[in-house]
Backbone:
């Protein structure tokens, strides 16, 4: 059986000792200063010794009060955390809908870091390209591609998207070796949707004579990237999605010419959801990861076919 003083008295002492002020403790606990003073006198009577030294308007802790405070603060912090975890479990999982390409190529490889940081969050991830307008409560937050303007929703920018040819190192060294954009005439092009991407990139690069409409097509950017990793041709890669493959060397970017894309990746959710601790935790982690990924991408120079050939 635990022999403990009143929990209210302990709470009053911890707040007053942490703030070294009865007034601040009263404001924090939403009670009167007289109530704080009464609770602490009750606690000191129960313990049989003083916890504070009162010298005029100055309040200091006794040696025993100083020794008592850290353990009480730790206990209240742990009770608060346990209560928060219980409330989040009671509210159900954090339901996230994500574009399949972004989920498989960017988010899922990083998710374990979030679980380590926030084991209390029960995350349920649904991969879908279907639009969801938040008119139902099927999901809590969404990761989508677009302009970031959705009425009634808060949208945080995850990453701007840019396009550039990517391929496996073996395709880059050929034959034909990919030294200039005109060398693309001799390789298979890989497409995702919309298929006009290659036409726009060729116009942007100022290269003609390429049959930009030929080659295998995929309905998902992740599939086109995987085909490129497997050496099936050159994909017009979405560089945010290709970041990990480029960093690992599974893909190379043979040309420095990059085509900006109007659409970017966004985290979208109803504004009221921002008050939820699990949403706030996921949002903070996701945006931090995105910043780190952007810094790595900016620091990484495109790998030329000549460099790849020299390494071989």
Residues:
């Amino acid at each position: 059986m635990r022999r403990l003083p009143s929990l209210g008295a302990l709470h009053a002492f911890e707040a007053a000792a942490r703030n070294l002020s009865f007034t601040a403790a009263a404001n924090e606990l939403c009670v009167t200063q007289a109530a704080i003073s009464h609770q602490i006198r009750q606690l000191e009577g129960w313990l049989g010794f003083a916890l504070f030294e009162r010298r005029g308007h100055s309040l200091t802790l006794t040696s025993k009060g100083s020794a008592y405070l850290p353990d009480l603060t730790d206990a209240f912090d742990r009770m608060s955390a346990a209560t928060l975890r219980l409330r989040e479990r009671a509210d159900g999982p954090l339901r996230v809908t994500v574009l399949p390409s972004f989920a498989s190529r960017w988010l899922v490889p990083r998710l374990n870091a979030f679980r380590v940081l926030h084991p209390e969050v029960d995350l349920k991830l649904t991969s879908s390209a279907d639009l969801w307008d938040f008119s139902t409560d099927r999901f809590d937050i969404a990761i989508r591609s677009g302009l970031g303007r959705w009425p009634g929703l808060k949208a945080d920018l995850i990453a701007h998207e840019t396009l550039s040819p990517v391929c496996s190192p073996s395709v880059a060294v050929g034959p034909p070796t990919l030294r200039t954009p005109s060398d693309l005439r001799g390789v298979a092009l890989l497409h995702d949707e919309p298929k006009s991407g290659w036409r726009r990139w060729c116009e942007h690069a100022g290269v003609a004579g390429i049959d930009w409409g030929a080659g295998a097509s995929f309905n998902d950017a992740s599939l086109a990237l995987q085909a490129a990793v497997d050496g099936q041709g050159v994909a017009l890669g979405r560089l945010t999605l290709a970041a990990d493959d480029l960093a690992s060397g599974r893909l190379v970017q043979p040309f420095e010419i990059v085509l900006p894309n109007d659409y970017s990746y966004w985290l979208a959710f109803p504004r009221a959801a921002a008050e939820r601790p699990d949403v706030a935790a996921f949002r903070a982690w996701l945006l931090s990861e995105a910043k780190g990924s952007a810094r790595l991408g900016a620091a990484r120079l495109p790998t030329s076919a000549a460099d790849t050939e020299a390494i071989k």
User: Anything to note?
Assistant: Residues 189 and 294 are 27 Å apart (CA to CA). Confidence is low (pLDDT under 50) at residues 301-312. The radius of gyration is 29 Å. The domain at 7-90 is CATH 1.10.10.10 (Arc Repressor Mutant, subunit A).
